[in-house]
Amino acid sequence: MNKVAIEKIKNPETPALPVFEEMREFMERVRDRAYELFEKRTLNPFADLEDWFRAEKEVFALRPVDLVEKPEAFHLRMAVPELKPEDIKITATPEELVVRTEPKPVTRTSEDKVLINEFFEEKTFRRIGLPSTIDVEKVTAHLNAGVLDIVAMKAAKPEEVPVPVKEEIRKAEAAKV
């Protein structure tokens, strides 16, 4: 089992973080590609969402994920069969996990005739929003047999402090007299 490095960001409002700039660039590429598809389409003028999904598929290599919520943590698994730990970048914020991959290009000679290629050779960019906050200091990631396994411990809930109601305060003061 190989450990994968995680960039931990406690305050996602921090300006100019590389991951958010990269996210913006990816979304611009999707937007531009979706617009190109829209311009070429003539038959169905109401297929904008279809164009967007097709553009996402072309720009991103969407790897399958499995996200499970347990009482104390979230477990995210992603299929990354051909990658090494150094090909994977993970960013954790209190509200989300971002996984980016950069596979090394396959080296081929000019004599190679590719008949089938189903390996992901494009970058992957997956943003997984979480339904509750996590403790970014307690996020771990491991790569084992082509599966990236991320465990994100949930943030501790703040202790509830009972606040006395005015009527209770009056009763307590009256009891003192």
Strand content: 25-35%
Poorly predicted regions:
none
* CATH level 3 topology: Immunoglobulin-like
Helix/strand order: EEHHEEEEEEEH
The second-level CATH architecture is: Sandwich
Morphology call? elongated
The end-to-end distance, rounded to whole angstroms, is 69 Å
Number of domains: 1
> What's the helix count?
3
Computed Rg: 24 Å
* CATH class descriptor name: Mainly Beta
Describe the structure.
There is one protein chain. By secondary structure, the chain is of the alpha+beta class. It has a single domain (2-12, 64-176), classed as Immunoglobulin-like (Sandwich). Helix content is 26%, strand content 30%. The protein has 3 helices and 9 strands; from the N terminus they run ββααβββββββα. It has a 5-stranded antiparallel β-sheet with strand order 1-8-9-4-3, with no helix packed on it. The protein has a 4-stranded mixed β-sheet with strand order 2-5-6-7, with helices on one face. It is elongated and about 100 Å long.
Q: Can you tag this structure with a few keywords?
A:
177 residues, alpha+beta, Immunoglobulin-like, five-stranded antiparallel β-sheet, four-stranded mixed β-sheet, 30% strand, elongated
Short description:
This protein has 177 residues and is α+β, with helices and mostly antiparallel strands. The chain is built from three helices and nine strands, in the order ββααβββββββα.
Summarize the SSE layout with pairings.
Layout: E1 2-3, E2 6-8, H1 18-40, H2 48-59, E3 65-69, E4 73-79, E5 88-92, E6 96-101, E7 124-129, E8 134-144, E9 147-154, H3 166-176
Parallel strand pairs: 2-5
Antiparallel strand pairs: 1-8, 3-4, 4-9, 5-6, 6-7, 8-9
Helix pairs in contact: 1-2
